[in-house]
Structures
1.
Amino acid sequence: MPTHSSTPVKDTAPPKHAQLRETLRHQIETLPPDQKIPSEHELCAQHGVSRITVRKALADLVHEGLLYAVQGKGTFVAPRKFRIEWAQEMAGFHADMARRGLAVKVRVLEQAIVPATQRVAEELNLQRGDPVVKIVRLRLVDEQPFDIATNYTPWVAFPGLEKEDLTRGSIYTLIRTKYNVQIDHGVRLVEAVACPPDDARLLHVRAGAPLLLIHNTMCDVHDRPMEYSIIKRRGDRAQIEIAVVTANTPL
């Protein structure tokens, strides 16, 4: 009777470090930001694996932005990242965060009438030196610094805006309800930059940490520029989602 050789079945189980990584990933989801996780030695004992396996799993999670390591202190849960949908954000930052059930707090760092710089004048279709309202705010989400927003608006269009309480709501909402101006459309420019030292102290990140630098020029229904803003957003706390469609023309 002929014999048939059988092909050995390969072990398809994922490597131990990958299994541990996924176990830790699920545990991290239940922990608050900046919570210290067990040490390498403790993880080895808890999961019955080698230190090499633990280090590889932790390195993967740090690379994904789910954990961060502090030399001499240990490994901690990274702050949550919030997905920002550009189409949604047209309604304003506060409205977008409220839709997600997230708490926003605002610290106003500067609120004054200043002469427009050349860049601000160009964005708002003004003359250099024309009065504009400058508002600088530190915005916190879930009690953690999220971004620094600097807004410029033409003073002639929004007199008195420099005196309004801007700690509780959106600038867009205020200019719509008080000044009857509806922000309708705009242009947004995004780039990646390194965080300067002064901003790092406010955002609770190290100098040189990655930031999203966002320039917005927003217009009303009559296509008049009504607001120019510069937003410095922590790169470890935000993801950008942009909806795309294919063109209806053949390649």
2.
Amino acid sequence: MDNGDGITVGWLGHPIFRDKEGHELFVRPDVPFRRAESKYSVKQVGVTAEFYGGELNGVSYSDPTTVKKYARCAQLGEIFGLDRATLKSDGVFRSSPRGWFTFGHASFALLFFFGHIWHGARTFFRDVFAGIDPDLDAQVEFGAFQKLGDPTTQRQGWGTG
């Protein structure tokens, strides 16, 4: 992570975006198909970014370039200040073979774990999955005639004597 973003230096604050009338806005990653058709650009709406808490507490930006920069960062969560110079970070996330090995094993472990849960549930609730009503337990012994060809299996059905 340090090679990707850099070393976290501090929390910049929680940005609140507002239009000219003061309505609070929600940042979404929608990009219009053509920029000429855009009706809600940051410049046209007059969006401002005001920060609460952190290093930029109380600071408000109305410059469209700066507002767009913080809006892009806000889509990923809280905004942190990053030191990219110390580790020569370039913003590209990479993984080592050890990371891929761990990811693969964790994925398969979860797959097998949930598979065991699923098949255990199928065994415990076999009658429910077969569509047998739970109220029939008083009338029918479920699984009594399950072993076909076995001489120890009951031969008479329910109610035949």
3.
Amino acid sequence: MPTFKYKALKDDGSAYEDTAQAPSKEVLYQRLKKKDESLVTAEIAGQAGDMARWRRTINSYLSGVSQKDKIMFARNIGAMIDAGLPMSRALDVINRQTNNIALQEVVASIQDTIEAGGSLSAGLQKHQDVFSSLFVQMVRAGEESGNLPEAFDTIATQIKRSYTLKKKIRGAMMYPAIILVAMILVGIAMMIYVVPTLSSTFKEMNVDLPASTQLVITISDFLQNYTIVSLAGIAGAFAGLWGIAQTSRGKRAFEWLLLSMPLVGPLVKQTNAARTARTLSSLLSSGVNVVHALEITEGVVQNSYYEEVLAEAQKAVKHGEPLAQVFQDHEDLYPPFVGEMAAVGEETGKTASMLKRVAEFYEEEVKQKTDDMSTIVEPFLMIVIGVVVGFFAISMISPMYSLTGKI
């Protein structure tokens, strides 16, 4: 029977640590529960426990607190608070439920804050690397309004929608990226290993080579003679582009390029429209004032052009101007539907619900566009691959016909 090293809370709220033998963590939890005590953490003591802890710790810190972990945290704690469980007990259950060491440490820290008399939002705010400003502010609004379960439900929905949107876009981009990389690697392999063999044959037979074949052989000779330099150059070019993209000017240039591209531009605009509308709707429905909601949303969009629009919107709202007017003045970034729905919302006093409809509309549009993009990109890639392979084949086969004629 394993020995557990555990931390528990007594019925007066004081914490203590001890060891005990039990068949499982659940049995230990039930035993402590009978004594009106709450289990906070429990780990198998000794070498086996150390190894298990070590493996879970490495895995947890490599992955961190994922979006799925945050969704689970928000949904479960909201449900438990709604069921009437005290906050400390709800956090205790979350801590025992997750196997993520990083999240367990965060939850334990939040428990310490609450036991010291602090609020849940204050505990969350100490971990801004895990919980975004949006998450914290919505919890704070829920605390002030006395409606934490609804706030957590909204947070879980917000994170899930955002996560699904990112995953969908990433999935649409992944296939062409893999095909492109594979095509480059195969091309390099052909140039290094296949072309030199044919090139030596052509030289031995003194075949007149067309310009296209000479170009292929020249590239092949360079890659063969300077393989390391060529690979280092390619890696350096990618690293240089990545470095430039990390600078403010480079990032802005990259964002402008994405917004200007035929297929990608509309997708970027609709994604940011959905993200802006979803975030503002969630915050406004939770009771956060418009200016503060815009400030938080500015940090969510992650695009300098949209950040500038939202910063402008904050100033406009402070001066008593309608929010919808700002969206309408920037229809090059926000589709007209956003401004019109925001205007209707402000006129009827239902801005949050109108923006929620905007978010749902554009989230569905993004989903449809990513599906369409996959359908369009696949044949386009096949055409590109066909042209490259055709050029290579013709370049290397045409001298063979000359060779056959000489024979």
